[in-house]
Predict the 3D structure of the following.
Amino acid sequence: MLGTETAFAVSAEAAAHGAKGNKIYPFHLGDMNINTPENITRAAFDAVKQGKTGYCPTCGIMPLREALADDINASHGTDFTAANVCIQPGGKPVIAKTIMALMNPGDEVLYPNPGYPIYESQIEFHGGKAVPYCYKEGKENFELKLDELEKSITPKTRMLIFNDIQNPTAAESSHAELEAVAEIVRKHNLYVLCDEAYFDMRYEGKSNSLVSLPGMKERSVILYTFSKKFAMTGWRLGAAIGPKEIIDVMSKLAVNDESCCNHFIQYAAVEGLRGDQSGVKKILATLKERRDTAVDLLNSIGGVRCFRPNGTFYLFPNVTEAMKRKGVKEYDELRKLALEKTGVSFCTRLHFGRALPGESDRYIRLAYSGINTDQIVEGIGKLKAFLES
Ligand code: PLP
């Protein structure tokens, strides 16, 4: 059955509450209220003026495919060329196309839970069996449960979906953990969909990719998106990067689905990759300030604890104790009450997959990409007053 991204439903509820004249503090959706850097916007207008308004090649204009291959090679130590890149209308379409290209009906696919809900939806819609592996709260951040992941592998397992620097937990694997994942992938001869939507969304340190490890780039498709790094969520531009024979299949799927991506915005994306990076730095600085404000305030609420992750723009605080103190048992009750009483709108753990057997701790997800610091202070202040009353 085709599932959905239920965060969009939460958005609609918040909008309906707002339409009645209520103030909303939007922490629910990973959209951004930060403008796309001006040099990128200008490049799009210039391309329109230059008549880049017709169809273009299915896998994208050559300058963009080359710029993206160069960008990935610089950060991943790979040797991709334009032939390994298929430009897509966002990061999301890469999920379905990779599944269609690599999975047969009846195959099993491992996917993260809690995790981005579209994986499970697309695996099952295309006739596969979605097998969850979990992330659990550790000492300093959420952690991948590697032993459980390996135990779930059967002879029917075809692919691993791996979203390091993860939505919703912001979990990030250490180098040793990436090595261990690569070992499992090689041992069981799996394909990998490596969702790197947040690879460049980090505030400290350097991101590492599973695809950089020996034997990985031959069996992996990288999901890349311009949405987050360049604050271009509504432009709809991303890419699949991987072995040419897989990219060729995805290109065939793209001819059937879209013909090509929006032509002129691809010139804007070239400017994003090759041009002045000061806009990107500003976006990260803005988000980092929001993260620090939100984390400090959340940790000041009785019965709430929250990590300070290095990447993404999501927080996944543990609210088990706060719910107990408030006498709220169900996630949806908490979410709806908070919206009604405070205007604070967020997703809960259940928007990121079914709760796993034995899971007793409770979590909510707050995105700080679409709300300014002063509103974070005001909104979390109201949430604190509500939860502690
Ligand atoms: N993958 C993950 C983990 C995401 O969180 C998102 C968006 O939130 C996407 C993929 C899709 O990105 P896009 O907006 O570029 O389609």
